[in-house]
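Sequence design from tokenized structure. All designs in this work follow the same two-part layout: the structure record, then the generated sequence. An example of the structure record is given first.
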């Protein structure tokens, strides 16, 4: 920190030159600087700049107590000098005299509120004496002061213009001079995030938060990075801290709720939404979020009310309309259809900006008209919704088919035999794989009704592991998938399996020995699962190709599943899935247990008995009364699995058969071969 002292009598030109020379020695040669300062004081006893210089040298030489004594005496003679207050504060901090440091820094920040370093040091000292709330506010003041810093403004501008290298250079130079600058550290973390270096980004943003725990925006960013890395417990810990901020920011409570939702704690999330709505009820997004949580908890009537409130406050809110339609057990009436058509008319002038509302409304109208048996009009809306959604997604069916074939070519019988034993022996995981809308949620609900099985949710951990392995190919470490997989040693496989079990532990809320991972896309990784978790069970949930694909195509998914928005692409995806599962079944017979939805509907007791026998579990009657099991269900079938099995959906696709030619053509021989 730089500021000028104010001696009573200005020193002579010679003394000023001597002081200037001594100051240049301060950092590199503090002993020499001290000697010159003492020499000057012999010529001009008590000269304030020389006294300050001597104390600065003493502190750098590790003699903070001596420095503090001289600084305190000087401060009594020269009160309120910023440079003196700064040095006094640092010496007091180093000697553990927080009260004196705080007094100096409070005086300093009153005089120079735009100097961020004074606020950050004040915050650290306040924390030492337990004045946490005041420390938090001091950090916030420091960040506010940093927002006007020229270097940081220049770096932020370069970053926002896409000149990431220029921004990084500015910040690296600054941090070489001020290594504990939290604002620069956080900004550099964002640059690394934009570059795609998540590890470096996390390290930097964590350091910024550690340096200035009251830096709310850095902690907010850190939580989002942790969520992206699926470090949910860490994200929750930081969200709990952020929720205590002295700033009254509802966004922090919302961020905490989103972490709780990811952790499966819908009840706490709902309580946060209800609390916020009690203060300000005209918030459609909050009503929608509440509806999602209540739906997952099985509180259908309350969820319907929440969604209705959302569209009451914002009639064009397409996602809220879709959320109502997506309850499956709710039928939207003529009045709702008229309201949604009016919403589309209202949105038409700003179609590009409101495309998400528009395609949600088309999906919702498709469902409403389907329930009204107007299948032609229903298909028209589904088709428009899918076409619009598809324009917003990146998906290459040819590229995906090539990846699937590479996987099938790798996990042959010979390869599996050659791989021998290895992996984590834990029998805990039960994977339910297949396509969305294949009956997997029904299987999950049946198994979760068993006393030894816990239902969790669609867990991303296996896909994260697989993606990390794929990145080794993308980055050139291995030429192809087979070479990379073959490189995994038994120890590697054990480590990866243990990583999966450990990372999924956060989702397990009971002491039941087995748990379900219902991520449907894990069919792509059945070979990897076999390698790293040889004792895990895999259930292939399969449904008639036309029924499954059509049901997926008319379903709008909150995220992922980019292949579902085109009839040809979803048909090809289903064919790729069938081909890989057939290849794996030939390579490892009986390792995967297949459940056909139509057979489960036709003979539930028999299919459940066969399923439990595959899992090595004793039969329990509760599995047949699965709809009575109370648990959170997050998928599109959440309401359907809370009632006994019904047969209405088995052949429902036939109502739309006249328009499903592209799907039928894409599926080809797979249709005739089903269920074999």
């Amino acid at each position: 920190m730089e500021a000028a002292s104010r001696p009573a009598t200005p020193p002579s030109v010679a003394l000023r030159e001597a002081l200037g020379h001594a100051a240049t020695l301060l950092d590199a040669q503090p002993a020499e600087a001290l000697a010159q300062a003492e020499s000057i004081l012999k010529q001009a006893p008590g000269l304030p700049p020389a006294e300050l210089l001597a104390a600065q040298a003493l502190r750098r030489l590790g003699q903070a107590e001596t420095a503090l004594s001289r600084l305190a005496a000087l401060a009594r003679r020269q009160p309120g000098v910023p440079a003196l207050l700064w040095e006094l504060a640092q010496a007091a901090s180093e000697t553990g005299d927080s009260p004196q440091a705080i007094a100096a820094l409070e005086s300093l920040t009153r005089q120079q509120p735009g100097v961020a370093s004074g606020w950050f040091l004040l915050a650290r000292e306040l924390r030492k004496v337990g004045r946490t709330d005041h420390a938090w506010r001091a950090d916030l003041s420091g960040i506010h002061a940093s927002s006007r810093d020229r270097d940081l403004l220049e770096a932020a501008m370069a970053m926002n213009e896409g000149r990431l290298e220029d921004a990084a250079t500015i910040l690296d130079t600054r941090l070489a001079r001020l290594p504990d600058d939290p604002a620069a550290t956080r900004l550099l973390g964002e640059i690394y995030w934009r570059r795609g270096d998540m590890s470096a980004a996390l390290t930097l943003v964590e350091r910024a938060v550690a340096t200035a725990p009251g830096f709310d925006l850095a902690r907010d960013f850190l939580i989002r990075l942790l969520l992206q890395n699926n470090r949910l417990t860490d994200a929750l810990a930081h969200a709990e801290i952020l929720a205590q901020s002295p700033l009254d920011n509802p966004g922090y409570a919302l961020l905490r709720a989103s972490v709780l939702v990811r952790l499966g704690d819908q009840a706490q999330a709902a309580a946060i939404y209800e609390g916020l709505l009690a203060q300000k009820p005209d918030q459609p997004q909050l009503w929608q979020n509440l509806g999602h949580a209540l739906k997952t908890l099985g509180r259908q009537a309350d969820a319907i009310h929440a969604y209705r409130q959302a569209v009451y406050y914002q009639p064009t809110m397409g996602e809220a309309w879709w959320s109502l339609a997506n309850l499956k057990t709710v039928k939207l009436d003529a009045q709702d259809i008229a309201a949604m058509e009016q919403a589309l008319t209202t949105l038409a002038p700003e179609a590009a900006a409101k495309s998400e509302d528009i395609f949600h409304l088309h999906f919702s109208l498709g469902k409403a008209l389907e329930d009204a048996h107007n299948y032609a009009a229903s298909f028209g809306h589904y088709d428009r919704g899918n076409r619009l959604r598809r324009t917003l997604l990146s998906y290459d069916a040819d590229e995906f088919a090539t990846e699937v074939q590479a996987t099938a070519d790798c996990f042959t019988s010979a390869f599996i035999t050659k791989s021998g034993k290895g992996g984590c022996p834990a029998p805990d995981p039960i994977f339910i794989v297949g396509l969305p809308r294949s009956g997997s949620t029904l299987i999950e609900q049946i198994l979760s009704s068993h006393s030894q099985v816990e239902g969790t949710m669609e867990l991303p951990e296996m896909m994260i592991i697989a993606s990390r392995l794929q990145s080794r190919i993308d980055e050139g470490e291995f030429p192809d998938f087979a070479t990379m997989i073959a490189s995994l040693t038994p120890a590697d496989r054990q480590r990866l399996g243990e990583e999966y079990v450990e990372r999924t532990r956060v989702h397990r809320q009971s002491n039941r020995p087995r748990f379900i991972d219902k991520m449907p896309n894990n069919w792509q990784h059945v070979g990897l699962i076999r390698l790293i978790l040889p004792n895990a069970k895999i259930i292939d949930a399969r449904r008639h190709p036309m029924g499954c694909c059509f049901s997926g195509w008319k379903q709008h998914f909150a995220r992922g599943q980019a292949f579902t928005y085109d009839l040809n692409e979803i048909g090809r995806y289903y064919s790729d899935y069938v081909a890989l599962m057939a290849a794996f079944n030939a390579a490892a017979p009986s390792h995967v247990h297949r459940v056909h939805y139509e057979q489960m509907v036709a003979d539930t007791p028999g299919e459940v008995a066969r399923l439990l026998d595959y899992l090595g579990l004793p039969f329990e009657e509760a599995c047949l009364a699965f709809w009575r099991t109370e648990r959170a269900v997050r998928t599109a079938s959440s309401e359907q699995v809370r009632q006994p099995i019904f047969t209405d959906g088995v052949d429902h696709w036939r109502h739309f058969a006249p328009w499903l030619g592209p799907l039928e053509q894409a599926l080809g021989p797979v249709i005739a071969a089903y269920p074999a």
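DSSP finds 35 helices and five strands in the chain. We note this feature because it recurs in several other targets discussed in the main text.
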